[in-house]
Amino acid sequence: MLKVGVLGAGHLGKIHLRLLNESKKYSLVGFHDTNKEHALAVEKEFGYRYVENYADLLKEVDVIDIVTPTTNHFIMAEQAIKANVHVFIEKPITSTVEEAENLIQLAKEHHVKGQVGHVERFNPAFRAAIPKINNPMFIESHRLAEFNPRGTDVPVVLDLMIHDIDAILSVVKSKVKHINASGVSIISETPDIANARIQFENGCVANLTASRISLKNMRKSRFFQRDAYVSVDFLEKVTEVVKMKDAPKEPDDFAMILQNAEGVKKQIYFDNPDIQTNNAILDELETFATAIEKDTTPIVTLEQGTEALRVAIQIIKAFDNQ
Predict the structure, then answer these.
(1) Do residues 315 and 171 share a domain?
(2) Peptide bond into 69 cis (omega under 30)
(3) Cβ-count burial of 22 within 10 angstroms (0-12 exposed, 13-18 middle, 19+ buried)?
(4) pLDDT tens digits, one per residue of 34-45
């Protein structure tokens, strides 16, 4: 078992602590939080060991799980890597692309592994969809959330949209060519609603919308490709696949047939995959342990987390041109 420590005992940090404490791949050594009063309260309530000095915690662990505000990610990950400790970093990887690129270089120099917490990659609905997604040419994503003061210190792009940016970059095997975007601040100092249109070099277009002041929650992405449509509901954990094939000469009475202007007939059928339920956060943490143990590439690498951040920042910069 890998010895692990957690940095940050806020809302998400406490979830990570509980899951790591239950995991069969990790031995939870303890946690550090800069708010000592809060940390002692967490220690008293849950029994997790509080380590007052971060440097002391690093001396005891193989892996550090960084679940702090993004502004602290770089300095904390830098210290861990220089101590030859593997790093799991919640998304977004860092505040700037330059910081992220520095972490990539440091990790290579110190031969440690890093993974970024883009948890939607481990969502069972998205996992089930991956084998069905093949060269999508139009993608539409909506990520809407009811207002929560947590996270409003950063634009909605870094708070919510970055989930979909990473998921889309993982299935579109092409470089970003151009980005148009607009954002509106309603209640926060930074945009609460944003829309981005990403054009890729291979012709694919992705249209993303994110809001953190909606009346209901929604997390849906739809992938359109040749003869197929794949819908992923990240919230309800449902995947729907609609495919088309050449219609038989004598279709049965219940077949759904479409005919285009040229007279070509296509039959519509459904190919919905089974959804294997899981705990996505536990999965992302345990697959990182497996990558360390087997010396394989983590599922969400530091490089991939950096690319998601790069696109997110390009979207934010595009707001200035609206």
Answers:
(1) yes
(2) no
(3) exposed
(4) 999 999 999 999
